[in-house]
Design brief:
Blueprint: H1 4-11, H2 24-31, H3 46-58, E1 62-65, H4 72-77, H5 88-100, E2 116-117, H6 125-129, E3 130-131, E4 136-137, H7 139-142, E5 147-150, H8 158-162, H9 165-170, E6 172-176, E7 181-185, E8 189-194, H10 215-220, H11 225-229, E9 233-236, H12 242-245, H13 254-271, H14 286-292, H15 297-310, H16 314-330, H17 338-346
Parallel strand pairs: 1-8, 1-9, 2-5, 5-8
Antiparallel strand pairs: 3-4, 6-7
Length: 357
């Protein structure tokens, strides 16, 4: 009520007032805080921006392959800025996880930014997945509802990387001890970055690679095939040219890209609203793929040729269809078309048999 006389009038029964009902969605919008970095500051790299837009729109995992200084880390830091705004439920869930891990400062309230976790490559498997005598959330749970960025991926211990396989599929991690068992959520987007070889300059347009015969393949083999199969988008990053660096051309802002991402996520929410726990294309089951990812004969032939030539696994086949579904959703197209499948196939760089030959 605006003044005291209105209160007196109400208690005397001379007037009535409708109750005030706070809007949870409005509160969530007020809670949302966007990162300080913006895609507007990135010169060139249009293919990387496109890949990140697709990844954000469908919740897909990404790996960036390129030489040192090409901008892999800089681009990854900007990914949370184009993800959909955090809902109040996501903010509460993320805050609870960080509170359990003791990561909430005394003066801090709800976590309002999507998490961006960047563990060092010397991290242990327990540090990454969680555990200990009294199991605490690991980095994959602290990245829940956000991004887990693994820079210099081949430098991580192999056993550390292998523990990622199950959480990437199930979006939850189970930590079992003799007396109890705990489930921590692990619904994160994985963004990995790596050099193409030990010296970093394999396939570089200007600098010569000095790695000996077989070194490139041995370097790449530090990452297992099953783990790579779980990464939807393989993106080759090339250095930015001088002309692009000095160009006056203004790039799209993160806000502009995020609006398209949110529109695409809305399409997916309507599609999966009857399925509990599925809210993005990357989470589709086999049954969902058969229902929502039907392709025509031309696209089917193209995909068959790609599988034969690149030696793709059944899981890679599913990943291509999921990415193609997201590309179609970005264009607000009901049916997956041949060009959508073709673009999705292009994002399987590490599956090309000639890439590290």
């Amino acid at each position: 009520m605006s003044d005291l006389s209105s209160v007196v009038s109400f208690f005397n029964g001379q007037s009535t007032f409708a109750p005030s009902i706070p809007s949870v969605s409005d509160l969530a919008m007020k809670l949302n805080v966007l990162p300080d970095v913006d895609f507007r500051d990135v010169k060139g790299q249009m293919n990387i921006k496109r890949a990140f837009e697709i990844a954000a729109a469908g919740g897909h995992n990404v790996i960036l392959i390129g030489p040192p200084g090409a901008g892999k880390s800089m681009l990854a830091k900007r990914l949370p800025g184009i993800l959909p705004s955090m809902s109040l439920e996501e903010s509460l869930e993320t805050t609870k996880i960080h509170s359990v891990a003791g990561k909430i400062r005394s003066e801090q309230g709800l976590i309002r930014r999507r998490p961006f976790r960047k563990p060092h490559h010397t991290i242990s498997d327990i540090g990454l997945i969680g555990g200990g005598s009294y199991p605490q959330p690991g980095e994959i749970s602290l990245a829940h509802n956000g991004v887990l960025f693994l820079d210099e991926l081949p430098e991580y211990k192999r056993n550390v990387l292998e523990v990622l396989r199950q959480p990437l599929e199930d979006r939850v991690v189970n930590i079992s001890r003799a007396r109890f068992s705990i489930d921590y959520p692990a619904g994160f987007m994985l963004v990995a970055a790596m050099n193409p070889c030990p010296c970093g300059y394999y396939n570089h347009p200007e600098k010569e690679c000095v790695c000996g015969p077989g070194m490139v393949q041995r370097y790449l083999s530090r990452i297992s095939g099953p783990l790579l199969d779980r990464i939807d988008l393989h993106v080759e990053v090339t250095p930015v040219t001088f002309d692009e660096l000095t160009s006056d051309c203004v790039s799209e802002s993160s806000d502009e890209i995020r609006r398209r991402v949110e529109r695409t996520r809305d399409i997916q929410h309507q599609r999966y609203d009857v399925r509990n726990g599925i809210h993005a294309n990357a989470m589709m089951s086999k049954r969902d793929l058969e229902k929502h990812c039907k392709i025509d004969k031309d696209a089917e032939n193209l995909l068959r040729q790609a599988m034969d030539k690149m030696g793709l696994s059944a899981r890679a086949y599913d990943r291509i269809l999921k990415v193609a579904r997201t590309i179609a959703d970005l264009e607000s197209v009901a049916d997956i078309q041949t060009q959508h499948v073709a673009e999705a196939i292009q994002f399987r760089t590490l599956d090309r048999l000639d890439w590290s030959a």
